[in-house]
Amino acid sequence: MSVITKIQVYFIMMPNSVLLDTIGPAEAFQYANRFVAGAEPLNQRQFELHFVGPEVKVENTLGLNIQVEPLPDVIAVNSWVVSTGLAGDLIDLDTPAMEATIGWLVQQENYIGRYISICAGTLLFAKAGLLAGRACTTHHMHLEELQAIEPSAKVLGNRLFAVDDSFYSSAGVTAGIDLALYLIQQEFGANCASQVARHMVLFSRRGPNDPSQSPWLENRNHFHQSVHRVQDAIQVDPARNWSLESLAAVAQCSPRHLVRLFKESAGVTTREYIHKLRLALAMQFLQSTSLPIEEVAERCGFDDPRQFRRLWARQHEFPPSHYRAKY
What we know:
The protein is an alpha/beta fold and 327 residues long. The longest helix has 19 residues, at 19-37. The chain has helices at 19-37, 96-107, 121-127, 143-149, 174-188, 190-199, 225-236, 244-251, 255-266, 270-288, 293-299, 305-315, and strands spanning 6-12, 46-53, 57-58, 66-67, 69-70, 79-83, 112-117, 135-136, 154-155, 161-164, 167-170. The chain starts with 5 loop residues before the first strand and ends in a 12-residue tail after the last helix. Keywords: Transcription, Transcription regulation. This is Helix-turn-helix domain-containing protein.
């Protein structure tokens, strides 16, 4: 019998919280749970969410009466802690609630596997001394404030989110959902992340310096369910010898109709989409294995290494060997 282990995720909800900064990522994690639970074989992990705070009754920008659990004395090893957004042009970090939460973060340091911040929640981690020398970001209104709190931090502007080892920070509000999708992709794969984005009716937004840029999430900024089914099938097995007829069967339409439908909805042809995902799969092999180029090309479904190198050169400045994992 397969068992799913739990990733413990603690959302810290402070007084004057922005609820969307909590609810958006939390819903993304819950959607991921549904897709993981339906996967075969049933041997993956899931998220278990906790909403905690220094005060059990949380004031928020909407005036809703929100009850949370007290900050726990003990958390599981490798838990994720999410510091969510706070309202206001200037955040007061010297309140009793802030001091209690900072003390709690220090106590749990050996148990926290990932630090995740949404919007002005990054300021809490900075105040706790956790961001010294690290790359991070926050809402554009609080960039200078963040830099003042931790002068040694590499504060990045114009970013959806930033990643530095086990520290993940986002620009806030909907960018927190982008970060959640990135984390879901890391844990459960690109197909799960794209399924979550699709069911949350999200557009994939990417900036020029965004470390989350991923071909697995691109070209899905549409609402046509038949095309999504085709993309889901390709993502599960990009290396398969996909014929237009087999893809049309997935879409439940004629090959000719699929050609037009896919191009109109996804913005690329089925062949271009398959090649893009095969190249992304090849990048994963290069960065995580020592397989020779010939075997990488074969495993990813290319006709031969020559085709692989030719298509690679169209998308990448450097040859495949440049991205090779170091062993």
